[in-house]
């Protein structure tokens, strides 16, 4: 695996050097990439098309029997290669996305890839004619080595290739062709090409100096990267804004971590959520430790409020610190006009969902104490043990960072960093220009075909 990746990197470097020295145009460069695919570039560069003659060789090759004696997990291209500490906004990302665009142009010009349709559950050990289409699809996108050939058998080679494909698309890498995997694998190549072009513009806008240390929230991926000196030091699963309450795209700086925070309900949540809940259950505020505070700082009794009124009262709805607090142990503040922030949550089970677009615009962070420790590591007196001790007291404690850390809320649905692996995510907010790229279901659970 390592040798194959290094070979691909050298080939990519050769393309760049040849382009500079000889002045070859994009068409010539694509021709070079097509020939390089026959010696292994496609195997390391997801999205690289094999030459048409190579595909003909695969299609016409003798079948390899039932593959029962070919289950060799070490030969599979698993999802492990997809994980790296290269940031989405790494220095080589723009160049690698441009190379991915060349590769996908070749795939499209060669007819794209086949759709995969099956009436049976495709997974390891299954034998079905539809596996041939799946193999061809995975070979064209570079997830399956072309030496694996075509057959009806879903063997360990296909299992590893499906897992790699799933990891590249932000799906659970279980090797099973479930509902989301089938939909992702059947997105046409020309749509993926358009997605790469759209995201190239977004990435170019973020290709400058982002800071020695920074936090990047990728909204469609519902993931967070903490980057230091050009490497990802922490990755966090996130929960971001709903489709109708979107997390904003912004550039800002984190200036404060609050331990045991109060939660002040935004006006939109008061109007849309709390008012209806109080009509159904007058004890809702008391049960959730939410107090009403007027402009002079005085507490107001909920019994004095007309909860059937059209508009919510002009009061602060503030929740006390504690385990049931909407932000649980931690709030991370940064300058912005949208009144959003990052925070902990008492609903930890939400991080296990495949679809994590559940907030009202703020971003919930899994393992937020790890991120807080990293943010405060240059602030004297705030080690991990001190953070934990303070949280145990239950006392509201704002902590200013010694140096503000840049934070970027971004919308990147396609990228390729220095490992040369192309990644895609669902266009949850429908910003990429094709409805098929947006999320197609709302169950949030990867359902296998029965």
Can you offer a commentary on this structure?
The chain is of the alpha+beta class and 450 residues long. The protein folds into 2 domains: 2-199 and 423-437, no CATH class; 212-414, L,D-transpeptidase catalytic domain-like (Beta Barrel), CATH 2.40.440. It contains 13 helices and 15 strands. It has an 8-stranded mixed barrel with strand order 1-2-3-12-10-9-4-13. A hairpin with a 4-residue loop joins strand 1 and strand 2 (223-228). The longest helix is centred in the N-terminal third of the chain and has 21 residues, at 2-22.
Give the proportion of residues in helices: 25-40%
First-residue to last-residue Cα separation: 34 Å
Q: Name the strands of the widest sheet in spatial order.
A: 1-2-3-12-10-9-4-13
* Low confidence ranges: 1-54, 58-77, 441-450
How much strand?
15-25%
Secondary structure tally: strands: 15
- Gyration radius, to the nearest Å? 25 Å
> Structural class of the helix and strand makeup?
alpha+beta
Q: Count the domains.
A: 2
Morphology: globular
- Overall pLDDT: 84
Largest sheet descriptor? 8 strands, mixed, barrel
Order of helices and strands: HHHHHHHHHEEEEEHHEEEEEEEHHEEE
- Tell me the number of helical segments per DSSP (H or I, 4 or more residues long): 13
């Amino acid at each position: 695996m390592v040798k194959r990746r290094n070979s691909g990197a050298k080939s990519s470097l050769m393309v760049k050097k040849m382009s500079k020295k000889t002045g070859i145009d994009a068409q010539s460069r694509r021709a070079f990439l097509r020939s390089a695919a026959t010696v292994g570039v496609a195997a390391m560069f997801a999205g690289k098309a094999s030459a048409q003659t190579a595909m003909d060789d695969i299609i016409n090759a003798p079948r390899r029997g039932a593959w029962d004696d070919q289950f060799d997990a070490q030969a599979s291209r698993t999802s492990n290669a997809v994980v790296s500490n290269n940031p989405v906004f790494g220095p080589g990302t723009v160049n690698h996305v441009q190379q991915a665009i060349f590769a996908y142009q070749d795939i499209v010009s060669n007819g794209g890839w086949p759709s995969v349709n099956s009436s049976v559950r495709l997974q390891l050990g299954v034998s079905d004619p539809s596996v041939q289409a799946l193999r061809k699809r995975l070979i064209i996108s570079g997830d399956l080595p072309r030496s694996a050939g075509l057959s009806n058998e879903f063997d360990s080679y296909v299992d590893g290739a499906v897992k790699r494909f799933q990891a590249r698309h932000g799906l659970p890498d279980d090797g099973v062709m479930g509902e989301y995997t089938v939909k992702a694998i059947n997105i046409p190549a020309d749509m993926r090409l358009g997605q790469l072009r759209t995201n190239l513009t977004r990435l170019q806008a973020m290709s400058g100096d982002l800071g020695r240390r920074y936090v990047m929230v990728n909204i469609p991926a519902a993931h967070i990267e903490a980057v230091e000196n050009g490497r990802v030091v922490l990755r966090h699963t996130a929960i971001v804004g709903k489709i109708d309450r979107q997390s904003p795209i912004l550039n800002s700086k984190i200036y404060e971590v609050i331990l045991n925070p109060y939660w002040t309900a935004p006006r939109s949540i008061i109007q849309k959520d709390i008012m209806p809940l109080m009509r159904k259950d007058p004890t809702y505020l008391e049960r959730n430790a939410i107090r009403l505070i007027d402009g002079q700082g005085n507490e107001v009794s909920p019994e004095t409020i007309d909860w059937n009124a059209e508009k919510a009262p002009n009061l602060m709805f503030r929740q006390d610190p504690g385990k049931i607090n909407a932000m649980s142990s931690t709030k991370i503040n940064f300058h912005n006009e949208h009144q959003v922030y990052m925070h902990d949550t008492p609903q930890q089970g939400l991080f296990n969902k495949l679809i994590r677009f559940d907030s009202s615009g703020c971003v919930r962070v899994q393992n937020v104490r790890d991120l807080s420790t990293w943010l405060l590591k240059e602030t004297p007196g705030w080690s991990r043990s001190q953070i934990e001790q303070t949280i145990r007291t239950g006392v509201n404690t704002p902590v200013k960072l010694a140096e503000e850390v840049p934070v970027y809320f971004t919308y990147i649905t396609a990228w390729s960093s220095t490992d040369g692996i192309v990644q895609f995510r669902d266009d949850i907010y429908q910003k990429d220009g094709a409805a098929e790229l947006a999320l197609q279901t709302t169950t949030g659970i990867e359902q296998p075909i029965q």
